[in-house]
Structure formats: structure tokens, C-alpha cells
Design a protein that fits this description.
The protein has 22 helices and 16 strands. It is of the alpha/beta class. The strands form three sheets. Strands 8-9-11-12-13-14-15-16 form an eight-stranded mixed barrel, surrounded by five helices. α1 runs antiparallel to α4, α4 packs antiparallel against α5 and α14 packs parallel to α16. The longest helix is centred in the N-terminal third of the chain and has 26 residues. It is elongated and about 100 Å long. The relative contact order is 0.05. The structure holds ligand C2E and calcium ion (2 copies).
Length: about 575
């Protein structure tokens, strides 16, 4: 017992402090914090005694409310905050376990509000010979608002009669503070198509279904003595406070989802629904209720994304990579505006004489916190969030400007090759964007090459239209990573492309290290085929001298790779060009 007294007293003290703060924070109170504290202590003691008293006397609440006003604690806000605070916190903070307590508390607080407002009115009326009509109307207004707030605070989960989010949170607070509990779990349950019920059968029937859901889940949770809460809408939580074996949580989730699969009957209708659940099990050390609920929400979204009607369990690695992903997505618009995205340039080398005849522009993001982020990752993120359009536009502009700078002092054959994301080709204005960029920067169309992957164009007819418009304007088009996608050669012949870039995979085994390697047959055929179609053939991923020599012997036009030049800064490209 001795051990329990300390946290118990601490919880009570926090409640007292919170209440004092609620009152002092709302309006000026004569006498200050110390006096309010005495009033609060006294009121709390009277309410706690009333909760346990036999017979139960709800009128105590009325007197407590009236006495608050007598003690000059009379701001309507103070009453609202008091009721909201006590309705959620009093029972858990005082460690009251009597199952009748919540209902009794609701009655006490209801009477408290009446006592408070009635004595305020009489205080106001006695002092109020000169209160004019307008002031009275404002007063009534305030009372009405107050009453609404009261209703909300007290009757929040009236629909199901289940503990609401605030009560779940304070329960979690208490559990997380309990030294005897080291692992807890929650199962967040959500109906998959509840909106359809509301839409097709009306809100009354929807409410009926939710009440039924509450009933069924109560049976599941009650079977094991678990705590069930209704967070509002169609969200419910089962809290498992004493995890014994590894499958405790999944057992609960299975039963919960199974019971919700049974058809619902209301007003002569019979409807089958399904529910999904996010299951989280964690050690209690350093855990915050809000964090636990958030992880449950994310886990639930995994279950829903996968396929509905099932549960998913929390996965730490997946969660942190998702957090990382989200923080990158959030950072991206500002990063675009601040110019955190830059371009590195990798030489495109003519194999016959090893002359640099162009560069591929490769996007780079140096995030101030996370450091260098791979373009494969941030391009994909930009595509899913729609940011690829502004990003792509700014990178294109930057690459063109840089190319013009080189052009000022270098007049050999030279082009800049810019990668396009799939989404950019689906923008019907894209060809116009390219044209205006060339116009603004002064780069000649044939000095710009756009790299597109096969998957971006296969079967997308408006993308093909955009390609034709671009080709007509004189811009060069290259198929990137050729051989990794559909590799539909016949299709290639139909497209207005000027170049293919062979994926690095075709270079494996061609440097005589593996004589019979299939690439020794495939690569020459691909190069010949490219030439047959009048295409410039570039080999990507050239990493060794032997590969470069073999490609030169096969007549491949251009090479790109670490052996021929790594992606680098504009200044170094200037040096490579020898000017
Ligand atoms: P990609 O277009 O196939 O670009 C070539 C990638 O291979 C680059 O990686 C480059 O650094 C790397 N690479 C070059 N030579 C070698 C080599 O010899 N060996 C090996 N192992 N790798 C080599 P990076 O820069 O990480 O870019 C990855 C992908 O990100 C690019 O693949 C492209 O699909 C995409 N990307 C990069 N910049 C942009 C951009 O501005 N816009 C769009 N839409 N996508 C971009
Ligand atoms: Ca590329
Ligand atoms: Ca490539």
C-alpha cells in the first residue's frame, strides 16, 4: 500500500494544480492563487466524499458550484474548464475504481453547473438594477454557449456510453505511470465503409450501427477485462494493460474484426461491414499516450492500404522510414524555394576519341539535417506529391542556363541531357514549358536532350503526343535505362527519339572476364539495332577500361560511367572541356 500512496498523492496534486490553473488562467480572481488553491482543495474533497457516500447526494455538486461563486470564482470560462477537467480527470487521478463513479460524477458536475450559474445569476441580478436589455441578451448568450460546452464535455460519448478519448488518455497516463506494468498494447479499430452507411441509410441508422459496434466490442474487451474506448466517429480502441504472451494482441484484434464481420441489422435492413485494425504493442518506458495513439493510427493506415478487413502490426523500421519520408515531403517545398536542389553533371564521352560531347544533369539534394538524399528517393517523393512539376521546371531551367554558360567559351559539339519524370510528360503544357525555357535561357533546342524511361511512354498516348511536339521543336529525346522496362523494339521505331541509353546491366560480363556471358551476344545486337534505327547509342555505367575498349570496338557511340567521369560540379566540367 505504502508504494501506491506516493504516485496517488502525486496524481491528486497534479489535478489540484490543473484546476487552479484553469481558474486563475481565465480571469482575475481576488486573493490570487493561494486562496483559489484552498477553495479547490475544499471542493475536491467534498466531491470525492460525495462520490463514495451512501446514500449518494447529488445536491453536494450544487453547493460546491454555488460556493465557487461565493468565493468570487465566477468567470463562465472557469466553470466550463472546471467541468471539462473534472469530467475527464477526477476519477483516474484520484484512483477511484468504483464502477458507479463516472455516472455519479456526471450528476455531480451537472448539479455543480446549475449551482454555479444560478448563484451567478442571483449575484448578477442583485447588483443589476442598471443592467440594460442588451447586456442581458449577451448574458443569456454566454449562458447558452456555456451550456453547449458543458453538454459536449459531459456527454461526449453519449452515443455508445463508452469512455471517450480524454478518458482513454488519462487511463493511459495512469497505466504508464504504474511501475508494475512494463508492456501495453492497443488495438485501434475503424470500420471500413461506415460513411456509406450514413450516406445510404441516414445518420440515425448510422448511430444505431455505432451503438451496435460498441456493444459487440464491449463483449470482446470484457471477455478479457480489457478497457474499451470510443474515440468518436467509427473509431474504437481496446487497451490491453497486462500483456502476457506474444499473441495477446492479435487474438484481441482477430476477435474484434470477426465480431464486426457479422451482419448489422437495423430498421429492417441487414448490412455487412468490415473493419480494419492497427495493433501496437510497446514497452511503457518513456511512452506518451499521444505518441502511442499516433503509432496506432499509422499502423491502421497500413492495414487499410494493404487491403481492408484486416489488422496490421506496428513495425518500428517501417514507421521510422515513413517518418523520414514525411519529413522530407514537408521540407521539399521550402527546399525548392531556397534552391537546396542542385545539379551535378556527368560527362557523356564520345568513345572513338574520348571527347566530352555533353553532360547528363543529375539532381542533388543536400538536406540541412539529413545530408545528401538520393535522387531516386526524392524524385519518387516529388512525383507522389505533385512537386515534381515545380522541381522539374526549376532543374530544367538551371541546366539550360548552365549549358549556355559553357557555350559562351566552348564551341565544339555539346549537349545537356536532362531527366524527365513520368508525371512531367503527363502535363499537357510541358512542351510549351520547354519551349519557353529555351527561349528565356537562349539555349538552342538541339543542345538540349530529354531522357525518358520506356515505362513513361508505353501505352500513354498523350505522353506520345507531347514527345512529337518536343521532337518537332528540335529538342533531342533519349530513351533512358533501355532494356530494364518493356524493351519493346518495334515500339521504339514509332517514336520520335534520337538516342537510347543502354542500362548498365548490359555491360556485365563483356570485359572478357566471363567469355560465354549472354551479354557478349546481346550487346552487339542492341548497338547494331540502335544504329539500324538511326539512334545514337550510349552505354551507361562504364566502370572499367576493359568495358570502354570493348564498347569502342563494337561501335557504341557514347559512354557514361565512373570510369569516364563521375557526376561533378560545373567548374570541373569547364575544366574537362579544356577552356
Ligand atoms: P539515371 O538517369 O539512370 O542516372 C544515372 C545514375 O547512375 C546516376 O545516379 C549516376 O550517378 C549513376 N552512375 C553513373 N555512372 C555510374 C557507374 O559507372 N556506376 C554506377 N554504379 N552508377 C553510375 P543518381 O545521380 O543517383 O541518379 C539516380 C536516378 O535518379 C537517375 O538514374 C534518374 O532516374 C533519377 N534522377 C536523377 N536526377 C534526376 C532529375 O533531375 N530528374 C529526374 N526526373 N530524375 C532524376
Ligand atoms: Ca538518366
Ligand atoms: Ca539511366
Amino acid at each position: 500500500m505504502g508504494m501506491d500512496e506516493v504516485p496517488g498523492a502525486r496524481r491528486r496534486e497534479r489535478l489540484v494544480q490543473a484546476w487552479v490553473k484553469a481558474i486563475v488562467g481565465t480571469a482575475f480572481v481576488p486573493g490570487g492563487r493561494e486562496r483559489v488553491r484552498a477553495v479547490v482543495e475544499d471542493s475536491l474533497r467534498r466531491l470525492a466524499e460525495a462520490l463514495a457516500a451512501e446514500p449518494f447526494e447529488p445536491a453536494v455538486g450544487y453547493h460546491v458550484g454555488a460556493d465557487l461563486v461565493a468565493a468570487e470564482i465566477s468567470a463562465p470560462q472557469a466553470l466550463g474548464d472546471t467541468v471539462a477537467l473534472l469530467s475527464h480527470e477526477l476519477v483516474p487521478r484520484l484512483g477511484i475504481t468504483d464502477p458507479r463513479a463516472p455516472k455519479r460524477l456526471a450528476m455531480l458536475l451537472g448539479r455543480l453547473a446549475v449551482g454555479f450559474t444560478e448563484s451567478m445569476r442571483s449575484v448578477a441580478l442583485t447588483a443589476a438594477e442598471d443592467i440594460n436589455r442588451a447586456e442581458r441578451a449577451a448574458w443569456r448568450d454566454r449562458q447558452l454557449r456555456l451550456n453547449n460546452r458543458l453538454q459536449r464535455a459531459l456527454l461526449c460519448e453519449q452515443l455508445t456510453g463508452l469512455p471517450n478519448r480524454a478518458r482513454l488518455t488519462s487511463r493511459l497516463d495512469a497505466v504508464l505511470e504504474d511501475p508494475a506494468i512494463d508492456r501495453i498494447g492497443i488495438c485501434l479499430i475503424n470500420l471500413d465503409t461506415f460513411k456509406a452507411v450514413n450516406d445510404s441509410f441516414g445518420h440515425d441508422n448510422g448511430d444505431q450501427v455505432l451503438r451496435d459496434v460498441g456493444h459487440r466490442l464491449r463483449a470482446v474487451a470484457g471477455r478479457f477485462g480489457h478497457f474499451l474506448a470510443h474515440l468518436g466517429g467509427d473509431e474504437f480502441v481496446i487497451l490491453v494493460e497486462d500483456i502476457v504472451s506474444a499473441d495477446d494482441m492479435t487474438k484481441v484484434a482477430d476477435l474484434a474484426l470477426a465480431t464486426l464481420r457479422e451482419p448489422f441489422r437495423f430498421n429492417g435492413h441487414r448490412v455487412s461491414l468490415s473493419a480494419s485494425a492497427g495493433v501496437v504493442e510497446q514497452v511503457t518506458i518513456d511512452l506518451q499516450p499521444a505518441e502511442l495513439l499516433r503509432t496506432a493510427e499509422i499502423t491502421l493506415s497500413w492495414a487499410k492500404n494493404h487491403s481492408r478487413g484486416r489488422w496490421a502490426t506496428f513495425d518500428k523500421d517501417r514507421y521510422s522510414s515513413e517518418l523520414h519520408r514525411q519529413s522530407l515531403i514537408k521540407a521539399m517545398p521550402r527546399a525548392i524555394a531556397r534552391g537546396e536542389f542542385t545539379l551535378a553533371y556527368q560527362p557523356l564521352v564520345r568513345l572513338a576519341d574520348r571527347q566530352v560531347v555533353g553532360v547528363e544533369a543529375l539532381a542533388r539534394w543536400n538536406h540541412p539535417v539529413h545530408g545528401a538524399i538520393s535522387p531516386a528517393q526524392f524524385i519518387a517523393l516529388a512525383e507522389t506529391t505533385g512537386l515534381i512539376e515545380p522541381l522539374g521546371r526549376s532543374l530544367l531551367e538551371r541546366a539550360c542556363r548552365q549549358a549556355v554558360t559553357w557555350r559562351h567559351f566552348y564551341d565544339g559539339p555539346f549537349l545537356v541531357s536532362v531527366n524527365l519524370a513520368v508525371a512531367q510528360l503527363h502535363d499537357p503544357d510541358f512542351a510549351a514549358t520547354v519551349a519557353s525555357t529555351l527561349d528565356r535561357t537562349g539555349l538552342a533546342p538541339h543542345e538540349l536532350q530529354l531522357e525518358i524511361t520506356e515505362s513513361a511512354i508505353i501505352g500513354v498516348s498523350d505522353a506520345v503526343d507531347v514527345l512529337h511536339t518536343l521532337a518537332r521543336s528540335g529538342v533531342r529525346l533519349a530513351i533512358d535505362d533501355f532494356g530494364t522496362g518493356y524493351s519493346c523494339l518495334a515500339y521504339l521505331a514509332e517514336l520520335p527519339v534520337h538516342a537510347v541509353k543502354l542500362a548498365p546491366g548490359f555491360l556485365a560480363g563483356i570485359d572478357d572476364t566471363e567469355p560465354g556471358h549472354r551479354n557478349t551476344k546481346i550487346l552487339p545486337t542492341l548497338i547494331d539495332l540502335g544504329h539500324e534505327l538511326d539512334l545514337t547509342v550510349t552505354a551507361e555505367g562504364v566502370e572499367t577500361q576493359a568495358q570502354a575498349e570493348r564498347l569502342t570496338a563494337l561501335g557504341c557511340d557514347l559512354g557514361q560511367g565512373f570510369h569516364l567521369g563521375r557526376p561533378t560540379t560545373p567548374a570541373q566540367v569547364t575544366e574537362l572541356l579544356g577552356c
